[in-house]
């Protein structure tokens, strides 16, 4: 069921939601959270589709906030709220409210959203595009226990990581971090099996890909070893190579779907490591509402890693002799992530 309301108010929207639930025979509210999506008209369809898919795992009230830019001075002065309500099969397993804000109302979106939040339920705010630097300081972000951005959508993703670290507040997270969850799980499992000390590591991936940077920061922070960022043609993150005293541990994914795990003294094995859709990433983030301390530590380590000037340039690395035959050739390494070098450079500032 779809209901269109023009020049409406939050109280009228709430009344329409109650009536719509009665009309379809489900007067009870069985949703576990409120998901607020802040986007523009161009990205609203894709964001809502991903949220509806994720709602099969997390039934929720989805509130889409679309700020409509007014072209004329008169239109910018006139505040107007239009809404589209979806319940039943048109709204996944929950209910959806699409809010279109016009005129001065675009600067006061929180006053419209607040009355529509589910009572006594957690609130998650998601910016598919154009997230503010300070997520918690944003008026809409202040409503949420969790705030989800996607640094990959920024014009300068690597610089945005440093800005995110400076403005971090408990509850912030990033879909660029969520994308590397399978990589982190696989690498941690490999080290549990080997029980060896890692001497250094290299992370290969596309240039300006924040997921690659975050994985390098995580390794450098958790292992306390030099980690080098090397460039490849992608897609996305392509390989991680960890040097140990017993040999090299390599997790190589050249095609974005299937990876090869190579460990000393063991046969090579194929592991599924496909690139996931936004709906899967969003569903993963909605599983936890507590602060992600590991993300915080990795992100804040990255500030020191990205800012030092005059760090020694890494030499071009050749593919090791025991690397898989289909491993992509490594481009000249860039932006070393050695923890010791970061501390030394920071001390000079």
UniProtKB/TrEMBL annotation:
Domain annotation Glucose-6-phosphate dehydrogenase assembly protein OpcA N-terminal: ranges:
51-166
Where does the signal peptide begin and end?
none
Q: Where is the Glucose-6-phosphate dehydrogenase assembly protein OpcA C-terminal domain?
A: 170-299
Domain of life of the source: Bacteria
> Where are the compositionally biased (Low complexity) regions?
310-340
Q: Where is this region: Disordered?
A: 310-349
Q: What is this protein called?
A: Glucose-6-phosphate dehydrogenase assembly protein OpcA
Source organism: Streptomyces cirratus
Upper taxonomic lineage: Bacteria, Bacillati, Actinomycetota, Actinomycetes, Kitasatosporales
């Amino acid at each position: 069921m779809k209901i269109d309301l023009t020049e409406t108010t939050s109280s009228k929207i709430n009344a329409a939601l109650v009536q719509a639930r009665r009309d379809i025979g489900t007067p009870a509210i069985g949703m576990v959270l409120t998901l607020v999506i802040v986007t523009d008209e161009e990205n609203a369809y894709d964001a809502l589709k991903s949220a509806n898919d994720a709602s099969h795992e997390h039934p929720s009230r989805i509130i889409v906030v679309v700020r409509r830019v007014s072209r004329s001075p008169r239109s910018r002065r006139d505040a107007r709220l239009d809404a589209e309500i979806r319940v039943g099969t048109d709204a996944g397993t929950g209910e959806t409210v699409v809010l279109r804000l016009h005129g001065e109302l675009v600067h006061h979106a929180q006053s419209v959203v607040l009355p529509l939040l589910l009572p006594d339920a957690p609130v998650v705010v998601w910016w598919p595009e154009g997230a503010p630097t300070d997520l918690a300081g944003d008026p809409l972000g202040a409503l949420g226990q969790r705030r989800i951005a996607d640094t990959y959508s920024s014009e300068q993703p690597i610089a945005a990581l440093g800005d995110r670290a400076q403005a971090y507040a408990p509850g912030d997270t990033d879909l660029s971090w969520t994308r590397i969850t399978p990589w982190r799980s696989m690498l941690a499992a490999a080290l549990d099996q080997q029980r060896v000390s890692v001497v250094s590591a290299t992370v290969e991936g596309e240039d300006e890909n924040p997921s690659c940077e975050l994985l390098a920061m995580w390794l450098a922070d958790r292992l306390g070893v030099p980690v080098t960022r090397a460039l490849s043609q992608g897609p996305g993150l392509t390989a991680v190579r960890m040097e140990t005293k017993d040999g090299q541990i390599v997790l190589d994914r050249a095609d974005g779907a299937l990876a090869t795990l190579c460990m000393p003294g063991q046969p090579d094995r194929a592991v599924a490591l496909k690139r996931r859709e936004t709906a899967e990433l969003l569903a993963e983030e909605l599983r936890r509402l507590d602060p992600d301390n590991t993300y915080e530590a990795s992100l804040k380590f990255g500030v020191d890693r990205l800012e030092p000037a005059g760090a020694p340039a890494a030499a071009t690395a050749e593919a090791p002799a025991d690397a898989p035959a289909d491993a992509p050739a490594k481009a000249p390494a860039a932006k070393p992530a050695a923890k010791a070098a970061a501390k030394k450079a920071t001390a000079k500032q």
